Amino acid sequence: MSKLNSLIDLNINEVAIIEKYNLAEFGSIRMQEMGLIPGNIIRLVKKAPFNGPIEIKLDGFYLSLRRDLAEKVQIRKLK
Question: Closest Cα to residue 15, out of 37, 40, 44?
Fold first, then answer.
């Protein structure tokens, strides 16, 4: 079993599965409303320079997240 990483640890076009969040209950609900549900598979599309937001693809749509929020999403990389 591979170790958990943060969403920002992914490289461009790497695929991962969402495992959990390191957030309070309100933050977890917000993540689920955006479609970031544990068990969903995501792909990193872009990373903005200078610690800017990241863009991921999940369930056929694109989502941009602030880097501080993305750091709190724990993922498991898929091969």
Answer: 44
Which residues constitute the domain of residue 29? 5-77
How far apart, in whole angstroms, are the C-alpha atoms of residue 48 and residue 56? 12
41 token code pair = 């598979």
- What pLDDT score does 1 carry? 56
Number of domains in the chain: 1
pLDDT of 2 reads 65
- pLDDT tens per residue, range 70-79: 999 999 999 7
| Residue of 41, 50, 53 lying closest to 15 (CA atoms) | 41
Asked if 61 contacts 3 with a C-beta cutoff of 8 angstroms, the reply is: no
Residue 26 burial (10 A CB sphere; 0-12, 13-18, 19+): exposed
Domain CATH code at residue 42: 2.30.30.90
The pair of structure tokens assigned to 76 is 């498991």
